[in-house]
Amino acid sequence: MSAPSAAWRVFGIGSPFGEDRVGWATARLLQAHFSLPGVCVEVLDRPGVELVGRMHGARAVWLLDAVRSGAVLGALHRLEAADLPVTGTALRSTHGFGVADALALAQAIGGMPNEVIVWGIEIGGIGRQRGAGRVLQRAIGRLAECVAQEIRRKSRAQ
Amino acid sequence: MSRKRRRRPVRRTRRAMREISVKVPLLARVEGEGALALTVRDGVIEALQLRIFEPPRLFEKLLEGRSFEEVPDIVARICGICPVAYQMSACHAIEGILGVAPGPWVRRMRRLFYCGEWIESHSLHIHLLAAPDFLGYPSALELAKEHPAIVRRGLALQGLGNDIIRLLGGRSVHPVGARIGGFYHAPDEASVRALRARLDQAAEDAKALVSWTASLPLPATEQVFECVSLRHPDEYPMNEGRIVSNRGLDIAAADFEAEFQERQAAYSTALQCLHRGKPYLVGPLARLNLNADRLPSSVAEHARASGIAFPSYNPFHSVIARAVEIHCAIVEAAALLEGYAVPEQPFAVPSPRPGVGFGCTEAPRGILWHRYELDSAGRVVRARIVPPTSQNQARIEEDLRTELAALGADSTDEALKLRAEAVIRNYDPCISCATHFLNLEVARS
User: Fold this and answer.
1) Which residues 67-126 of A have a C-beta within 8 angstroms of B?
2) What is the pLDDT, as a whole number, of residue B277?
3) Which end of chain A is more exposed for a tag (fewer CB within 10 A), N or C?
4) Coil, strand, or helix at residue B136?
5) Residue-level pLDDT at B321
6) Do B141 and A90 touch (CB under 8 A)?
7) Is residue B34 in a domain?
8) Smallest CA–CA distance from A87 into chain B, residue
9) Is the previous residue joined to B311 through a cis bond, with omega within 30 degrees of 0?
10) Which residues are CB-contacts of A56 (< 8 A; sequence separation ≥ 6)?
11) What is the pLDDT of residue A9?
């Protein structure tokens, strides 16, 4: 999968299982029900280091992912790349390579888009295999609306 | 995060010998959870233990009672970095029982699938895990800041490997495309053409990578060890071949248990595998030492031009061997895709029957041996899996003894720790199926 050519890209990140699929589900909803001309919307299965390559050449990237922060289930989080905590564990193991690690690596090799926005949905736990429940389904719908509105606003401002 | 604590010596002798105890409670830049404990007395290493404390995962028990058809998807879950190897060893073992002959198209695509995994796994290890050790950086991030073009090239190669796996497996992590008898789906010709178009540039990148790894300031050392790998009559080994060594071993996969024995070390949750009671090496350096004459000619020529002669008994030349194997896998992939055509059916149809089968293929980290017993309904009665990291564990301990003794017991704690980490990481151990930094506790008298 070579990098997409679109300047604006939305990536639903996670796995197809349990509550970890909320990022995927939001991206799928955007693909199916929202008109976002010229914007590449994809799902990425636990991309790890590959996220660096997928962002290469983009001007703006929206990353949709599951989050656990202690907030209420279904809460939406919006972070910019600079807001992501540097954990000190980046690049210790390719098994535990996360979004913050990928962004730090992209920054280091000069492959960071001008703008990276991370949207998250608070989940209960990635081990829960019952899929997105009603609360999370509503959150997925809300997040899709938020991302679409943000992209449209940005588009109009250009 | 590094943690240092000074303690009183564990015990004193009448002669008041000097005792050093180095404990590394968590190994880093390795895949999984492990640690190192080292005790040096009067300049002699008295105890050295590579401790793997990741909880047992019990995959072999999990497979019992499952249909043979489920096995490739279950074993793919053992590792996110080398799932193809687990799938291929399982497929070969089970097809041996069922008498399935998948045919030339499947054989070629399985080799291509394996090429993808070598490219992906080796690229990750060289750039994100090993190279910082040799260039004196504390992490890959620091390396990337100083050498962005090198890391960009490495990530592009890794991405290519993932794309090859994805072409046949549907996804690169825990792929789902392999089945007993072949693949669920054959790639269309347009996807193959698009992938093929990237391979010429990738081969140039791989050549540059071989030259770069050969120019790294690697520690100069020479050790004595047995190399074990597969050997095929015509090809650089991936999916097929006999198990051979530089000490005259030459056996079929079915005879593995007669030569190799696993033992439990009380300090580790991973079994250690020995060849007739002795440590041995598997992986890229062992493979290249035993199979340099099976490299494609352009790859062999460039490897020779890099100035490193194989066979080599400097374990640190493993990083160069990995680069050579990336080059090999790219050249092989291009050849395998020549004249590609979509087959009528990308698999042979298996029927259950009872029996015992063996599979041994070359995972990125070395030979991966599987044994399955099936009942008449094709359900797994018993499974046994011997991964490369358990085979390399005793060799890593042996290498640590040699390298740390050569470094000298008077070296600083930090120097001992750094060298120990570099030695361990050089094997690309996959503890989840193996390591990149160590926390350290030191006691000196």
Assistant:
1) 88, 90-95, 104-105, 108-111
2) 96
3) C
4) coil
5) 98
6) yes
7) yes
8) B1
9) yes
10) A3, A111
11) 97
